[in-house]
Amino acid sequence: MRYLGINATFHDPAAVVVLDGKVVAASEEERFSRRKHGKRPVPFSAWELPEQSMRWALAEAGVSPDELDGVGYSFDPAIAAEIPDDPYDHIRLDYVRRAPGFIAEALPGLDPSKVSYVEHHVAHAASAGLAGPYRTGAVLVSDGRGERHSHLAGQYVDGELTILARQELPDSLGLVYESLTDHLGFLRSSDEFKVMALASYGTPRFVDELRQFVHATGDGGFTARAPEWERFAPRRIDDGTWGGAHADLAASVQCVVEETLVELARWLREQTGQRVLTMAGGTALNCVANSRIWREAGFDDVWVQPASGDSGTALGAALTLAQRDGDLADPEPTAALGRSWTDDELARWLTTAQVPFTTPGSREALASEVAEVLEENGVVAWFDGRSEFGPRALGHRSLIANPMLAENLERLNDVKGREQFRPVAPMVLEERAAEIFRGGPIPSPYMLFTHEVLPEWRERIPAVTHVDGSARIQTVSDEGNAGIAALLRAFGERTGVPVVVNTSLNTAGRPMVDDPRDALELFGSAPVAALVLGPHLVRRAGFFAR
């Protein structure tokens, strides 16, 4: 059977196709439109559909609109409550009610009656509980808002969801974090990860006061309402300065959010007796909180959906319909679900652009040449295979550098045009990870947990060691990404360090590179020493010596 999942109500519009129970294509609209997050989450944008990603996903799956057995839309207006402090929220709901017609207009041949509304947090839950490796386990969802809730706690048993607790709006951990993001001078519903990074530079001296506003209630729910932030620190203007009371406030809010999430997870463990926890929702992108849950909540394993933000609800909506109709296949968790090009197609892109390139004879030969560039402290743009679904660059669309030089943190932040308090992340061979990192799950293939860098390694890989001694690692195996695994081995043979720096292949304010044109534009405008495009290698010296 054939299902299309769509997220479009708030931000990160996306489309996913599930074919005969398997996820075969998934992409966010921003990768096509080149507009970060696809659109802003305002009521007036709710009508905007991920038209380009819908059409691509159907084409990738070889499915025409009239062949679809169902379309899942990840918001149900029938149960939605209007937000009283937003005078235009009724416009959002009106657009959502009209969504079946909008979708049919965008996809000629589709019968609008095939469109089903899937509750927002149920779609989030399915993206974890049905797409992940465990079809039986507890599931925890937390974000800014859905129809009338900000949280869902429950369990899947053989793919069937039972909901045990929800949190009614306006209490919302996600909205508290969004409000703080805005107060700290960043873009809300976009830059919350910057607050998490800034928190590492602060002291949580406001925790006692903030617990009045953010805390678990012991029944699977919580209180979470933004206080008057001015009580703690003046509103920050984003002028490039940071630290002081603003960092302390970020650290304090991060702390109470972590405490609340740990208590919610513990409550869920007690209620269900489940050994594993799956997580989704925008709050599940808070890797520091995820690590505390992994360490303190009592589960044997914690699996977090890589596309935990709203884009992932497109995945969950499609899987919910497949599960409803008894058409789920065994899960094959991966984030590599986006666009890709053949080796010959990539070569034609380079030839058409009149870019000189070489094609080393094997994966190992390419890895050896790139490792040499890294050892000489060159930055490499790496474009290989299917693009990632979700916000993390996982070795398919990555900027890679040498982790052994502390100045490479500042250098990469300069290349990307972003704040200097922002960390970069390490990729590490899975079989070597436990020698270097501890305090988090291994393997950790999706960069969704923080680990402690062992003291004896901190001076060896200073570029990826955050100010608090932590790192948001990605473990790499031959099965998950053979090209990056070969690169890590080659770099390790040269330097004794089986780690490289990984950050997303983009510059500030832009979506990640997705197609070859994007990669060539970045390579031509950023100080990058080499570009890997599939099996092909472009060196900057050759590129500009024409």
UniProtKB/TrEMBL annotation:
It comes from the Bacteria. One of its GO terms (molecular function) is transferase activity. Residues 371-540 form the Carbamoyltransferase C-terminal domain. Residues 3-71, 113-319 form the Carbamoyltransferase domain. Keywords: Transferase. It holds the Pfam family Carbam_trans_C. Belongs to the NodU/CmcH family. This is Carbamoyltransferase. It comes from Pseudoclavibacter endophyticus.
